[in-house]
Design goal:
The structure is a single chain. By secondary structure, the chain is mostly helical. Helix content is 74%, strand content 1%. The chain is globular, with a radius of gyration of 22 Å. The protein starts with 8 loop residues before the first helix and ends in a 10-residue tail after the last strand. InterPro entries: DUF2189.
Amino acid sequence: MPQKPIGNPLSWSAQSLAGIGRGVGAAVDGIGSHEMARPQINRIGIADIRAALRAGAEDFAALRSDVITAVVLYPIIGFILAVWAFNAGQIHLLFPLAAGFPLVGPVAAIGLYEMSRRRELGEPADWRAALGTLRGRVLGPVIMLGLLLMAIFAVWIFAAHAIWAATLGPEPYTGLGAFLRATFTTGPGWAMIIIGTGVGFVLAAVVLCISLVSFPMLIDRPVGVPVALATSIAVARRNPGTTALWGLVVAAALVLGTIPFFVGLIVVLPILGHATWHLYRRAVSYPDRAARPTS
């Protein structure tokens, strides 16, 4: 059998750079839309939310070990941030950090969408296969949307700090008990709650509209960022009540998932991630795909 010639270091470097260049080129190319036509936007209701959650729970049960391996990092990050808030005298940021999870949740669940897609098609759906999809045309748009959500999260943390400084601050509180007493028993504390809730609601509504189906859509089709964002907003506009209800379900589940010490996210995040895929499948239809699920 003829031996494959061994290249010199220069040829290895050239081949490696060429491979990197192709990967970067594919990622950048994926940001734009290859499929310019938007899919059909369907009416969805409470029954679709229930069905999506049920299907998400079934995916979690079927893929439990792989899913937990893929998402266990996020509770750890949440716990580390909570410890930092206590030790750095930033107790006032503890709730904003926990409340900010829904803003970056769609990025955290990107591998879960792929697992559900693969399971739906009868393909291998372990976490290695799921993470393997984050390359080529998918990587660029996912990074772009991820950076957008991270920017919104940064705006939320900055706003939360500014609201606290203008009401209860700027002197930091040394203990959680003292901070909670000042928050719930003083006028400035209630001002902080009301203003913070209003700002958080607006930012959460923005994230919900732009990420409702955009991330699953990027995994599923070569649509790029513009069409994915436009489709997600169109789904939210056609189904405002259902979108608002879905947002409340996600927010309530993530709040419960932070108890105790973010450990509940190991279960909550996978179910919501899988359910988001199934809600996407119900919210949009394509001419070249079978009809959306009905059960």
